[in-house]
Design goal:
Helix content is 29%, strand content 36%. By secondary structure, it is of the alpha/beta class. Helix 2 links the parallel strand 2 and strand 3. It is elongated.
Length: 172
């Protein structure tokens, strides 16, 4: 009985740890804005990254999503302006393992290991180019993979999730 309670407790802790580290993607918009009035976009701030290719991959993913919604990229005099930011932060997670003896007040050994990993946040902002007022924002946060292909795949998925409920683009 006692071992089943311990097993259930450890299972719940593991599940919470997985949920806590899952990617989080949110998006919000100005509900007073009629997005069908916008037809073109241009970049005013591209993300900066210590990794030589990541910033370009983010720009490509955002461009692809905006094109899917019917917007066209131009170099000047666009209806919408796009800005993106990439931030990373080192996080620590402590995992403690018990040897199974002495669950009460004494005896037993515990080993704690520290896992260090990097968490990245991508923020994409869309502005009305004339008024310079923000009209939409998407934010994605997730653990950063050490493998470039997986990092690219995860970034593409996160940006796709950001734009999933993005308002319809220009009505042709």
């Amino acid at each position: 009985m006692r071992s089943s309670k311990i097993g259930i407790t450890l299972g719940i802790i593991l599940l919470l740890a997985v949920v806590a580290r899952a990617d989080r993607v949110t998006a919000d918009r100005d509900h007073a804005v009629n997005f069908s009035e916008y037809k073109t976009f241009m970049w005013i701030q591209k993300p900066k990254s210590n990794e030589p290719f990541m910033a370009d991959r983010i720009v490509e993913a955002v461009n692809a999503q905006l094109r899917l919604k019917g917007f066209r990229e131009v170099n000047e005099e666009a209806d919408m302006a796009v800005g993106a930011n990439l931030a990373t932060e080192e996080q620590h997670e402590w995992e403690t393992y018990y040897d199974g003896s002495g669950w009460g007040w004494g005896g037993g050994w515990a080993t704690t290991k520290v896992k260090t990993y990097e968490v990245g946040t991508i923020t994409v902002d869309l502005f009305d180019a004339r008024s310079k007022k923000i009209i939409w924002q998407g934010v994605a946060t997730d653990e950063v993979s050490s493998r470039p292909q997986k990092r690219t795949r995860e970034t593409d998925k996160q940006i796709e999730k950001m734009f999933k409920k993005f308002p319809l683009g220009p009505q042709e």
